[in-house]
Amino acid sequence: MLAGGGYAEYVSVPAGQVLPLPDGVELPHAAALPEVACTVWSNLVMTAGLRASRLLLVHGGASGIGTHAIQVARALNCRVAVTGGSRNKLELCAELGAEITINYRNEDFVHVVRSAGGADVILDLMGASYLDRNIDALADDGRLVIIGMQGGVKAELNIGKLLTKRAGVIATSLRSRPIGGPGGKTDIVARVVDDVWPMVADGLVRPVIGAEFPIAEAQAAHELLASGDVAGKVLLRVED
Ligand SMILES: NC(=O)c1ccc[n+]([C@@H]2O[C@H](COP(=O)([O-])OP(=O)(O)OC[C@H]3O[C@@H](n4cnc5c(N)ncnc54)[C@H](OP(=O)(O)O)[C@@H]3O)[C@@H](O)[C@H]2O)c1
User: Fold this and answer.
1) Which of 42, 57, 65, 209 to mutate to test the pocket of ligand 1 (most atoms within 8 A of CB)?
2) Which residues contact 5 (CB under 8 A, 6 or more apart)?
3) 141 within 8 A of 167, measured Cβ to Cβ
4) CA quadruple 149, 154, 155, 159: dihedral sign
5) CA 84 → CA 4, 81, 102, 103, 232, distances in Å?
6) 68 alpha carbon, distance to own chain's centre
7) Do 21 and 86 form a contact (C-beta atoms < 8 A)?
8) 25-60 residue pLDDT tens
């Protein structure tokens, strides 16, 4: 785990990147947790300092990352706003605890989020195409954390808007982090075990699985993901 790019029944990784099975979740479903838990905790809490009563905006709330981020933020007693591309997906986000749901196809997330006071933290997977509007949607002292580049890598940054709000823009990748040291993979995994696994054991956070396929049908799983017709994680099942 934490090193995307392949599927296997057995894998050799540094010991610090292995997590115990959390209480209350069966092994196949627990497979949906490590990547999203490490991404969400490292970015929202360790990097952006999200804490209780703050407003979090999650773009793509029904994604694998988004469905986990909503639940973790609610477990931290944060308010959550999400964007999504369909009513079904936004309903799922609301069931998971999002109080503000925004259809990015026909609503202006900047207007909606500013009306709610502005986002203290934004978890963004679009990158360039949302940069300027994300900064507009931030509250004073807000933090924009970019983890995806679905909307491109190059955009103009209005430093004046950042200065006025004392805002910050951070971009991170789990895969490129070092194994050791502060903020490294071992550090993140340890924090997830200490802080997120109890949320799972308490039933506050659960894996959200949109579909399961036998591992031999990995191509069909990728086609489903690419179609956008699925929410949460897509699991590949290895039979005994
Ligand atoms: N940096 C890191 O360490 C790291 C780690 C893991 C993942 N990621 C990145 O995080 C992102 C999410 O990963 P995932 O596996 O959870 O993805 P996923 O399940 O495939 O979801 C993709 C999401 O993008 C949303 N989306 C598409 N266009 C959008 C728009 N214009 N505005 C808002 N949302 C939009 C989709 O929303 P609808 O389906 O509602 O249209 C969908 O929820 C990916 O970009 C991935 O590369 C980064």
Assistant:
1) 65
2) none
3) yes
4) positive
5) 25, 10, 6, 5, 12
6) 6
7) no
8) 999 999 999 999 999 999 999 999 999 999 999 999
Strand partners, 138: 119
- The candidate with the shortest Cα–Cα distance to 141, out of 213, 202, 50, 16, is 50
Gap from CA of 214 to ligand 1 centroid (Å): 23
Does 210 sit in the ligand 1 pocket, CB within 6 Å?
A: no
Q: Which atom of ligand 1 is nearest to the CA of 175?
A: 3
The closest residue, in CA terms, to atom 15 on ligand 1 is 64
Q: Where are the domains of the chain?
A: 26-173+189-208
pLDDT for 4 equals: 58
Which tops the pLDDT comparison, 233 or 11?
233
Pocket test for ligand 1, best of 125, 134, 233, 234 (most atoms within 8 A of CB): 125
CA of residue 240 to ligand 1 center, whole Å: 31
Q: Is the CB of 145 under 6 A from ligand 1?
A: no
Residue 3 banded pLDDT, cuts 50, 70, 90: very low
Residues 133, 137, 138: CA angle, nearest 5 degrees: 120
* Amino acid letter, 50: L
Does any ligand 1 atom lie closer than 6 A to the CB of residue 127? no
Confidence category of residue 1, pLDDT binned at 50, 70, 90: very low
Fold of 26-173+189-208: Rossmann fold (3.40.50)
Report how far residue 36's alpha carbon sits from residue 123's, in angstroms, rounded to the nearest whole number: 13
